Amino acid sequence: MGRMRAAAGTIVFLVIAPGTVVGLFPWLITGWQAGDPGLAEMTAGAVLTAAGCGVLLYAFGQFVIEGIGTPAPPAPTDRLVSRGLYRYVRNPMYLAVLAGIAGQALLLGRPVLLAYAAGVLAAVFAFVHWYEQPTLTRRYGSQYLEYCRQVPGWIPRVRARRPPAA
Fold first, then answer.
1. How far is CA 125 from CA 88, 117, 130, 165, in A?
2. What is the pLDDT of residues 71-121, one digit of tens each?
3. Chain center to CA of 33
4. Which of 9, 77, 123, 126 would be 69's cystine partner, CB 3.0–4.6 Å?
5. Helix, strand, coil shares of the chain as percentages rounded to 5?
6. Domain chopping of the chain, boundaries
7. Rounded to two decimals, what is the model's pTM?
8. Is 98 within 8 Å of 30 (Cβ atoms)?
9. Cβ 77 vs Cβ 144: under 8 Å
């Protein structure tokens, strides 16, 4: 898969998957109607939402640039993505999605979105454990297993792992 095709597929997947989870469903739950957040909550929520969106876009870009593929299971990367944010944590996209939802909960003053985020976390954790990790192990073998030994799955490490030699 070439980078142009990977970029197009990644954009489509970005709109469909995270767009639905972080955009459509929160809107269906809240109608974007705010509760009664204070200035501090709104500010923290705006920062968290913006950070989540930024991390998500950066992580998706890594799939195109480094992996020459998409994050979508039907069009996986040619190479294991292990640079950039992936040197600190194996699942930055999922964490970014959760940050986006939590940020919206604070920004709108709608705790129901925190309950939704907990459900998303449970679904994502199950997906990673039962589908993604076994699939990546089959696809990349010992390279992925070594990566898992060096980089935590969910809590980012403070110091980045050294990228493998190119």
1. 18, 12, 9, 30
2. 998 889 999 999 999 999 999 999 999 999 999 999 999 999 999 999 999
3. 25
4. 77
5. 70, 0, 30
6. 3-150
7. 0.93
8. no
9. no
- Determine the Cα–Cα distance for residues 132 and 129; give it in Å rounded to an integer: 6
Is residue 89 within 8 Å of residue 154, measured between CB atoms? yes
Q: Give the pLDDT confidence of 60-74 residue by residue, as tens digits.
A: 999 999 999 899 988
The encoded tokens of residue 5 equal 């095709």
Type of residue numbered 105: A
Q: Which residue has the tokens 């980045």?
A: 160
Cβ–Cβ under 8 Å, residues 8 and 86: no
Tell me which amino acid residue 86 is.
Y
| Residue-level length of the chain | 166
Phi, psi of 140, deg, nearest 5: -115, -5
